[in-house]
Amino acid sequence: MHGNYIINSLLSACLLENGGEIGGEDCVKMHDVVRDMALWIACELETKEEKFFVKAGAQLFEERDVKAWEGAKRMSVMKNQIEVLKGTPKCPNLRTLLLSENKLQVVSNGFCRFIPHLMVLNLSENIGLGALPEGISQLISLQSLDLSWTSITELPMELKSLTNLKMLDLSYTYDLRKIPSHLISSFSKLQIFRTWCTTSGDNPKEDNVLNGDNENLIEELKSLRHLNILTIPPIKSLFALERFVSFHLFQCCTQALHLRHLRESNVFNVLCLENMERLETLYFEGCGSIEEIKMEKLSPNTNYTSTFHTLSHIVIRGCNKLVDTTWLILAPNLCHISIFGCAKLEEILSERKLGEIADVVGIP
């Protein structure tokens, strides 16, 4: 909440601007003039050993001025046209490297060899990038690794050496098929873990936590005591969902939940999610058996007036038997509703069911 207040204050002062929506999330960006001034101040005040190297949006087609990288501490070459990183830069001072929104397809195995103190690596939105370089295991100081919107197919077990990792973002890695067993649980300092991927079911069977209902992945996540932001691959059974929501750590840190192909029952009690304190996005997909999303109290003494106060995005897709979505009235801060492929949906809010809402929230 404090972070939102700061961002809103900067927006009001026109120091930040609305950056639109990416992946269903609202974004902000720095005003061009403010950005130029910040870079000027940084480059003027920083010593030679701690300088900034910024070539964002410079229409680069290859890594240039590799020699100039050597003294850089913070570096951004995002929003360019770079397809291959084949050099072996020697950057002993480099802490931050932003390579997002390029056209990367290959990163040479030697690229990571001489950047031992790198803490932040952003490779996001490189759709052509299908594999990580072997040398990435040498980045033992790495704390933040963003691989979202890439085409990587698996995480190498060599990542286990990244024991300082605090943030791993695998959002929208639709081609991801394998995460080796015991890899995620080895990141004992992990605070943020995002994986919003849609696997096709042809995953490798052995030594892979993405098999079945992702229960092995969930078991590994239970050991990460520092987690505070979590999104996981689709949950595909009510049994797996019940186990997931019963664990206190997941109740406190889950930001997005994807329920897919729930077929065990024609009724889903949405109040089973009552303890999800930070849930912002809820996605029902292909739950063709569900006819009703009901609101049945799990505890007679619970006040449900603020149960879904953090929920802002709802997507309901391919739930062919669903008749209404009256339960949405329990989410007072809902900003975005997307419903499609629900052939029998008659109404968003059912007047007949509003009485149930009154009973649930305790209105006489």
Q: How many structural domains are formed by the residues?
A: 2
**Major sheet details:** 12 strands, parallel
* Name given to the CATH architecture of the largest domain: Alpha-Beta Horseshoe
Low-confidence parts, pLDDT < 50 over ≥5 residues?
none
Pfam family, one: LRR_14
Domain Disease resistance R13L4/SHOC-2-like LRR: 75-339
InterPro entries: LRR_dom_sf, LRR_R13L4/SHOC2-like
Organism: Gossypium schwendimanii (Cotton)
Question: Please, could you describe this protein's structure?
Answer:
There is one protein chain. By secondary structure, this protein is α/β, with parallel strands linked by helices. The chain folds into 2 domains: 1-45, no CATH class; 49-361, Alpha-Beta Horseshoe (Leucine-rich repeat, LRR (right-handed beta-alpha superhelix)). The protein is built from 7 helices and 18 strands. It has helices at 2-12, 32-45, 66-69, 215-221, 238-245, 248-253, 354-361; strands at 16-22, 25-30, 51-54, 72-76, 84-85, 96-98, 106-107, 120-122, 144-146, 167-169, 192-194, 229-231, 254-260, 267-269, 281-285, 292-294, 313-317, 336-340. The strands form 4 sheets. A 12-stranded parallel beta sheet has the order 3-4-6-8-9-10-11-12-13-15-17-18. Helix 4 (215-221) links the parallel strand 11 and strand 12 (229-231). It is globular and about 70 Å long. The mean pLDDT is 85.
